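ping. complex inputs:
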Amino acid sequence: MKGPRLPSRRSLIKGSAAIGAIGALQLASPFIISARGEVPLRIGMIDPLSGSYAAVARSEVEGAKLGVAEVNAKGGILGRQVELLVEDSANDVGTGVQKAHKLFERDHVDVLFGDVNSAIALALAQVSSAAGKLHIVTGGHTDGITGKDCHWNVFRVCNTTYMDADAVTQVLVDKLGKKWFFLTPDYAYGHTLQAAFVKLLTKLGGTYEAALAPIGTNDYSAYLIKARASGAKVLIDLMGGGDQVVSIKQFTQFGLNKQMALGGALFELESIQALPANARTGWWTMEWYWNQPGVPHVAEFVANIRKGTGKTASARHWFGYVAVRSVQLAAERAKSVDGVKMARAMEGMTLPPDVALMPGTFGYRAGDHQLMSSVMVGEARNPPPGDNPDDLFKVTALVPGEKAALPVDESGCTLRYPA
Amino acid sequence: MTELLLFNVTNGLIIGAFYVLMALGLSLILNLSGVINFAHGGFLALGGYIAFTMQPFIGFWGALLLAPVLVAVLGLLLERTMIRRLYGRDPLYSLLLTFGLAFILQDFTRYVWGANGLPFTVPAFLAAPISDQLFFVTWYRLFMVAVVAIAVGGLFLFLRYTRTGVRIRAGTLDLETVSVLGVNVGGLRAYNFALGIFLAGLAGVLASGQLSLVPNMGDSLLMPSFVAIIVGGVGSLPGTLLGGLLIGLASGLVTLFWPSAADAVIYVIMAIVLLLRPRGLLGEEGMLG
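pong. complex structure:
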């Protein structure tokens, strides 16, 4: 970018919409533009606001908006106000890529966030690296993003599928046994997640059968019939978002919960909330949980999200928030918003407690740009009467990211910066 | 293996029964008014959400009866104010209108109730399997099939034995003549549209019991229902019934052997039917032709 540009009509509208959204969050004190005449720093965020992952995608956007409001209230990034331009990928790779081109070429964003859908996140990474801009994958889990398909400009907040699988496998085997049946979504996320589990399970002497179900499946009876016929003791439900909700709902209605245990990797707060009380069960991982008594700044973050959205904060809110604050930290370290300089600054950068919002010290690993946050392992539950109705998970163990993740040399990632 | 096969046949028929309910509503509207109602899925989701909201006050059964009626009233309102103006024009106009309405209804639902799924619960005795052996046949699914059977039976009796029903059928075959005979075609179409939307609302409440109640829940149910109509034959309600059961059965069976083709198989069936018998299995020659 050379010199200040006059804002186009489109960006004016978007900018005022962003300001309106921040106003609605009621977080910022009166909106003060600290450096008049400066071009705002633009962050483009692409997430599937419609489709199976709409709920979690919206939570990520809400988290990012809180981050932007906080940063702007404190004078912005390097004296520039931050603008968040949100686009819907509609859970479709082609649409996501098209939106990325639009954000880079028309809106001239400095940083890209997204996508929840792993396949879209992988495709966006190609566009962002070609554009030479910093890209933070907020919520796409497939290993490749910070593994064999890693890029110099791509960082990831949420866990790799391997981290989630590694953190929970031993607990699942201890609690539920070694004979598993996988119900796995048939795309990048499901494939790598199942592969990680299989590797870990067979090491422990376990056996498994599996079924791959397309995203958006409505009726899981055929798969559940297979699961029961297999004689497995545990259903490992790896479906995501709304698909996981539907499959667990049907699993419970079929009475299979009386014959098989239930577990897996992610069981997100949004999904547990969407299920009837008798289906909130099993052993899972959470990537961040709102109820962490005694951990600094967490209660404040939860209160801010509730104030702005009326919702209880989920891991997805945290992803969006961490992404914005990471950009702030990186830009301040690099004293620039240049893609290469910010990426270099983020390597090995640890998150301060008001961004980390969980115990331990961790940051973005230099070798593969993966955030090494701890994985929370625990059990889904119904809160006892009198408790917060959203206290739907009991964290029983905290597995440090470094322990759960594959070492960098096994991740398959080789970072190549532009010459 | 035989057991698995039998399981999946039964299961496929249950799924098919559900498609039938949705397809019949679409079919009614298409046959009489020539409107391809893309907003059907939106009305379906709305039915589920209204039922969810009313459930704490009037219970599951009250919601099951009342929610579809409210959705039908909304449908009637939209028909009177918007869709009515496009009758007699190229079907493309109403297709575009209902396509837009589908987005509006979905976003309206998302705006009011939020994007996150809601925990719609059905009475405990329904959400249990009928036997340990046939665990995938829950009382709820049997109940769903029964509701579909009653709705289909009722619809056929209505169309056969009531004056309005006979007029709707006559109008399907030759609207001009019906009009010349002094029947108020506008009123008939409005009535018919509301009836179709009522079926969408009913399907929505039933679907919420076993799917996730989300604003876009109708999306994945809409296409199979269109396919059911095309396979069964446009213009024929018994054809729609047959088409719905057939594609439910086919996707149930294919899921057993080749899950990733479960969605594709219904389109393959549609292609074969269109190639060999373009009017559909029980369709009238020249409908929409």
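The interface with chain B takes residues 49-51, 54-55, 57-58, 186, 211-214, 216-219, 221-226, 228-229, 242, 245-246, 249-250, 252-256, 270-271, 273-278 of chain A (CB under 8 Å).
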